[in-house]
């Protein structure tokens, strides 16, 4: 991976490794969420500390989610009134979660996360309600925005891996969205909680800008390709990939830690 050629203090081989790894993560993020399973280990392997890796991943994730949001907005999938109801609680939850981690740590989440991911994988694998047609909502948008959204936003700021997949499951199960629409809204909500978390990491001085920018370049490329595949293929592509991503993340945290 090392070439001996450096730019701005970073080896050229490491730079290429970061971009390619982020492109793969962005592709997975756009398809089913869970790109952090790839991007954070990539940053750690490149020699960055856990705090630096999380901060760079927040920049990468925020810009990637913005790119995905831009794509779906152009397809007319998103409703502005619904977004105005859902976004503020996601911002609030993400901010509170990021602040909380500074005081209490999040090690225990490594043990709770695999259980949540396995349950989600089972739901996506066996539920007959996961499809590309909207269904009757089980909750109103107002109730959903004041309960479920800030909880997932808090988790995203506090820990992060799989947050996009949790958003996807929530909007399809509780708001009755089709899987394609759910993917679009999950990316916007992920953007909101990522942005506020990113702002806090920058304020605390934990951002490694060059690594974050390189990861962002790869992320955007992967996200646009993945978003296009989701829009064209819908549930037949997303459903199995969500199951695979959830199981992979669960196994990673069970056997290799975070």
UniProtKB/TrEMBL annotation:
The keyword Cytoplasm does not apply. One of its GO terms (cellular component) is plasma membrane. The keyword Transport applies. It is a multi-pass membrane protein. InterPro entries: TM_pro_TauE-like, TSUP. Keywords: Cell membrane, Membrane, Transmembrane, Transmembrane helix, Transport. Pfam families: TauE. It is found in: Cell membrane. The chain crosses the membrane at residues 12-32, 83-102, 108-127, 139-158, 164-183, 195-217, 237-255. Belongs to the 4-toluene sulfonate uptake permease (TSUP) (TC 2.A.102) family. PANTHER family: MEMBRANE TRANSPORTER PROTEIN YFCA-RELATED, TRANSMEMBRANE PROTEIN YFCA. This is Probable membrane transporter protein. It comes from Conchiformibius kuhniae.
